Amino acid sequence: MPQDAFALAEKLSPDLSARPRLLIIDGRAVPAVSGKTFATINPATGEEIAQVAHGGPEDIALAVTAARKAFENPAWRRMSAVDRAALLFKLADLIEQNAEELAVLECMDNGKPASMTRWVEVEGSIRTFRYFAGWVTKFGGETLPVSPRSGAQILNYTTREPVGVAGLIVPWNYPMSMAAWKVAPALAAGCTVILKPAEQTPLTALRLGELALEAGIPAGVLNVVPGFGDAGAALVEHPDVDKVAFTGSTEVGKLIVRGATVNLKKISLELGGKSPQIVLPDADLDAAAASIAAGIFFNQGQTCTAGSRLYAHASIHDKLLTLVADQAAKLKIGNGLDAATTFGPLVSEEQWDRVSSYVEIGRNEGADVVTGGKRPAGHDKGFFFEPTILTGATPSMRVVREEIFGPVLSALSWTDPDDLVRQANDSDFGLSAGIWTNDIKQAHRLAGAVRAGTVWVNCFNMVDNATPFGGFKQSGWGREHGRNAMELYSEIKSVWVNLS
Questions:
Q1: Nearest residue to 102 via CA among 90, 118, 81, 80
Q2: Per-residue pLDDT tens for 94-107?
Q3: Cα–Cα distance for residue pair 310/108, rounded to 1 Å
Q4: Is residue 500 pLDDT above 90, yes or no?
Q5: How is 48-80 classified by DSSP, letter by letter?
Q6: CATH number of the domain to which 24 belongs
Q7: Share of the chain above pLDDT 70, in %
Q8: What average pLDDT does this structure show over 358-380?
Q9: Among 93, 141, 247, 341, which is 20 to 30 Å from 257 by CA?
Q10: CA distance 343 to 321
Q11: Are the C-beta atoms of residues 466 and 472 closer than 8 Å to each other?
C-alpha cells in the first residue's frame, strides 16, 4: 500500500488539473490535432481528475507514421539484443522507482484500492518488463534437418523477425498491467508500438510513455494515444499497422476482426469470459468460499476471468452460499485511497448502470438476491455497487449466459457429473474455470472436460508471465505470456542455403 495514499493524491492533483495530459507521439508530448480534450473521472467521487488530449484518427495517423519511421531506423531495427534488453530492464527500474505515484494514479483513475494497484498493476508491470527483457537475448530460430532430394546438401535455418508496427488497445479494468502485457513482448520482439488506452483510464499509460522515453527508448518506438472508439477503429484499419492486439469485450473484438481485413494484419484477442466455479461435495468449503468470493468480487468483478457462474453440488450448495455471503460481508467498501478499503467503486456511471440493469434482469427472470444488488448506504457519490449473490438461477437466464463484468455471482446447483460438464461448457466463452475438490482423479477429469484456456484446481485467478493466458471459443485468439507472447509479435522466416 502506498504510504498515505490520500496525501500523495493531494500532492499530485494540482499538476493533474493545471494542464491537459498530452499525447506521446514520436518522442514528444503533443496536443491532439483537433485541440480537443476530455475529462478522466475519479470513480470514487465522480469528480474530474484531469483533462486529457482527445486523440482521434488524425493523431493515430501521425503515431503510425512515427512508429513506421522508428521501425525502419537502424537505431532500433539493428539494436543488439543485449542493448534492447537493457532498455526494458531500465524501464522496469523506472516503474519501480515511481511505484507509489503510479499506484495512486491508477487508484484515482480506475477506482480499485491503492493496495491492489500497487500489488497487481505496478508490481505486475515491473515483473512483466523484467521477464520479457530476459526473452530478448533468448528468442530466435533454429537449424532444421531437411531432405528435399537425395544427395542434396542443404542448410536450413529459421529466424524470428519483428512483425512491424503494432497497435495495442487495452481496457480499463487493469490499465497498467494490461499495457505491460502487450508493450513488453512487443518491444522485446523488436516491434514499434502505438498504445491506445481506454478513455476511462489513460493516466498510467501516458506516464508509462514518459518513463519509456526517460529509459532511453528511441522516439517513435512507443507512442501513446488516448481516445475513444474512432481512434481505436483508425488504428485497426490503418494499412501501415502490421499487428493489432486487443483486450476487451467480445463484441468489440468482432469489430476488430472485420476492420483488420484492410491489409489482413495479424490479430490477437483476449476477450470476454463467463467463468464457472465448480464445487464438488468433498471440497474444503471454507477455502473454496474465500476464493470464490475473491474470484468474483476482486476488482469489483471487473475481471475477464471473474468466476461469475457457481456450480455447487446440491448437498453443499446452501452451506457454501452462506460462507460466500459471509466473505462478501467482510469487504470494506470505500475510496481506494483509504488503506482500510478492500472493495472500491465500479469504473464509471455507465458500468454502474450496466451492472444494476443485470441485477434487475436476474430478478425479472426469477433469480433471488441473497445479498447486495444496490448502491451501498453512505456512498451517494461515486459509482459504488454492493457485492451481489443471485440464487435460483437457471442455465437459460441472461445473468448466467452473458458477461456482466461486475460483482454479481449467479449460483446454480447440480447432482449429475455429466450434466455439470454440459452446463459448464454451455457458454459462448471459454476463458477460465475453477474446480474445487480433494479427489485428484475428479480434478483431472474435470480439468480435461472443461473447455477453457485456463483451469485452476483448488485456487483461482493465478497468473504468471511464464505460462500462456487466453481463451477458447469467443474468449479470444492467441495466448499472452511466455514464448507464446513473443511469437504474437514476430514473423518466422525459413532460409535455405544450397551447400552442394
A1: 118
A2: 999 999 999 999 99
A3: 32
A4: no
A5: EEEEEE-B-HHHHHHHHHHHHHHHHSHHHHT--
A6: 3.40.605.10
A7: 99
A8: 97
A9: 141
A10: 20
A11: no
Which of 368, 283, 301, 288 is closest to 111 using CA atoms?
301
Using CA atoms in the order 366, 369, 373, 378, what is the torsion angle rounded to 10 degrees?
Answer: 150
Q: Is 199 a catalytic residue?
A: no
Q: Are 266 and 243 in contact (CB under 8 A)?
A: yes
- In single-letter form, the type of residue at position 410 comes to S
Q: Which residue type, as a one-letter code, is found at position 379? A: H
Active-site residue, selected from the candidate residues 106, 270, 386, 487: 270
Q: Quote the mean pLDDT of the chain.
A: 97
What is the β-pairing status of strands 276-279 and 432-436?
parallel
CATH number reported for the structural domain that contains residue 459 in this entry: 3.40.309.10
Judge whether 499 lies within some domain: no
Backbone angles phi, psi at 309, to 5 degrees: -115, 115
Q: Give 288-323 pLDDT, tens digit per residue.
A: 999 999 999 999 999 999 999 999 999 999 999 999
Q: Could you tell me the residue range of the domain that residue 162 belongs to?
A: 5-271+475-494
